[in-house]
Amino acid sequence: MKIPTGTRVADTPVSNIEDNFVRVQQTLANAVSCAGVGLHSGQPVTLTLKPAPPNTGIVFVNRNGKDGASLAASIEHLVPTELCTAISGNGFQVKTIEHVLAALAGLDIDNVYVEIDAGEAPVMDGSAAHFVRLIRSAGITPQNRRQPYLKITRPLEVVNGDRLVRIEPSTTTKITYSIHYNHPLIQTQTYVYEHSAHAFEREIADARTFGFLQEVEALWARGLGQGGNLDNTIVLSQDGILNESGLRFANEFVRHKILDLIGDFSLLGVPFIGHLIADRSGHAIHTRLVQQILSHPDCWVLLDGDETVAASKPRSAKTAPRPTSLVALQAS
Fold first, then answer.
1. Position 310 in a domain
2. Among 147, 151, 219, 283, whose Cα sits 20 to 30 Å from the Cα of 23?
3. How much is the pTM?
4. How many domains is the chain built from?
5. Is residue 308 part of a domain?
6. Which residue has the higher pLDDT, 189 or 226?
């Protein structure tokens, strides 16, 4: 669903908006690549991040075929999957994109082409740290357009049994996440994250994905998790972990959940100002809240420093990537 006609665009002068949210769009200074394997497929994959013009957004480009089809990282293209986030359209699908999306969103990178030659992003070490290092090595460059922000003005939530994710008005971009597992290394963990590129790099990016041994074995039996190993996944036994290197943080588990949420929420298509509160949440419920937000334009305003956002002409990557002066927010 496109932004409804009549979407409110805040008339607050850009000079009066909180300083943290007055910035220009950013892209990479250079192209940079990495190679690894897909977490679930186990197949080799090369991923290349390339600079993109203002208002492009994050666009995946298929380098496995001759046509080089492109696909915006947008909730419009979300498809149901198990244990990861995936988008599909224009003749190709790419899975397990949440970690690279988290790295881009965490470092406030707005416009990038993500070229990929397989159907799944590389897992690397199971965190966003490698992608952060990749971005830093490429360099970050400012662009000549202001970056719009979606500011939450009324609460919205999605509840599924004992799982909940909610967003409330706030003057900052903030996440409070709680998890509960009957395991001596986890139990109940809660972490509060206030967004900044520095905080993401220091507090969140290094947190790795995790799973319980019996669940990992069950995934292998079903042909999933073929690329998973102790170098890219924290594997929990009944009373400890199998990884000899140990944990990077005592609460690495909840930090990784925040990492996933940041990646999933980037499918909104624009940074947000609000307080996300998650309890026992996961990919499916994260993206349901993104859809809920875009379905309720009375619960937010768009802060834009340059121009009124056009609701009738959304940004699209259904054809070859190209520059555009429009901002789009779309939901399935």
1. no
2. 283
3. 0.87
4. 1
5. no
6. 189
